[in-house]
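Practice problem 4.
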């Protein structure tokens, strides 16, 4: 699987409607009242990639397997959630497990759909959610630091190494800065991820606009884009209502015609996927053969053994080499054998950095 994204937001911003549309299911109940999602819903979607079809046709594969993304619909939060308001912070724990957070903000006015704050202001909504996550992190770190200090004084090596990082995180949280803004060295990254802080997650603002603004956005979504640029977040503009209608269209041509009539080049799902890849700096490589052509997702900069490990841990453990063909060469030359004869198949070792689109055959021994 690729990665997972947790969808958070205030009640009545369109979270469950979006979740249903993105996953093409009716797993999440939708209603015009807060807390209609009582348990977090999880859905997986295939990542569309036209390269898969081309590789499969050339390799004459029996099966195509795209990489998948997982969406987690988390119940609507309200101001004071970190202190037990509304449904309380029981749902905050679900955010700790995701790779990145989709913060869905309402950028449309509709008298028939109430707003929990009484007025539509996406920047205020974003501030409420960010504050609740920050307060929850602050409470967590403040409770953990004293125990860590005690262990460090007792000579615990791990505690001594972790304490400076925790102190920097705590100082930032007390100043109102999310954990993701903490300066973290390369040696500290693994420990930092292990803290599972809510505000350490990369953030994607998804602006839910009215149908007429789905192609161009509106003044409210533009304000959110400015905030995202200032904080290093990503943005995507979608209309949850349009996505719900698109999800009901099974015929690809009919779906394409409908999107074109609205001035849209792609679905909101595609926009969210692209933004998620940029946010998490992910790339796709492929494996291909008579049985299956398959897409795999790894972080940009991953070395060949790490990419092999995305397939199976044995591949990474017993890695020998990666026989690699660039996607363009694979398609232009007509497959593995032709690429090999043309000198375009490279035998790469452990230090090779995998490129987006690489078609790879891993050699390993365990």
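Answer key:
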């Amino acid at each position: 699987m690729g990665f997972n994204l947790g969808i958070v937001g205030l009640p009545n911003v369109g979270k469950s409607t979006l979740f249903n549309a993105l996953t093409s299911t009716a797993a999440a109940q939708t209603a015009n009242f807060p807390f209609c999602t009582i348990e977090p819903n999880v859905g997986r979607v295939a990542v569309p990639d036209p390269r898969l079809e081309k590789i499969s046709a050339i390799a004459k594969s029996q099966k195509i397997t795209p990489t998948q993304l997982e969406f987690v619909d988390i119940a609507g939060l309200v101001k004071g959630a970190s202190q037990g308001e509304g449904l309380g912070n029981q749902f905050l724990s679900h955010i700790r497990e995701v790779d990145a957070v989709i913060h869905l903000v309402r950028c449309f006015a509709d008298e028939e759909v109430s707003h929990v704050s009484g007025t539509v202001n996406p920047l205020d909504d974003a501030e409420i959610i960010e504050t609740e996550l920050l307060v929850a992190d602050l409470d967590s770190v403040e409770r953990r630091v004293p125990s860590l200090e005690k262990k460090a004084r007792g000579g615990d090596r791990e505690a001594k190494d972790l304490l400076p990082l925790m102190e920097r995180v705590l100082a930032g949280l007390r100043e109102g800065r999310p954990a993701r803004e903490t300066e973290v060295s390369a040696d500290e990254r693994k420990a930092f991820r292990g803290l599972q802080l809510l505000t350490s997650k990369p953030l994607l603002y998804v602006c839910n606009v009215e149908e007429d603004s789905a192609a161009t956005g509106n003044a409210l979504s533009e304000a959110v884009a400015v905030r995202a640029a200032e904080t290093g977040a990503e943005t995507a503009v979608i209309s949850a209502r349009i996505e719900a209608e698109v999800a009901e269209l099974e015929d690809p041509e009919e779906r394409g015609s409908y999107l074109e009539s609205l001035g849209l080049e792609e679905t909101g799902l595609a926009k969210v996927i692209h933004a998620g890849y940029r946010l998490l700096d992910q790339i796709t490589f492929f494996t291909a053969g008579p049985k299956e052509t398959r897409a795999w997702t790894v972080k940009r900069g991953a070395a060949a053994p790490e990419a092999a490990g995305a397939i199976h841990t044995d591949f990474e453990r017993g890695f020998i080499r990666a026989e690699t063909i660039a996607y363009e060469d694979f398609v232009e030359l007509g497959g593995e054998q032709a690429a090999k004869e043309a000198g375009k198949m490279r035998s790469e070792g452990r230090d090779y950095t995998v490129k987006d689109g690489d078609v790879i055959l891993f050699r390993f021994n365990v």
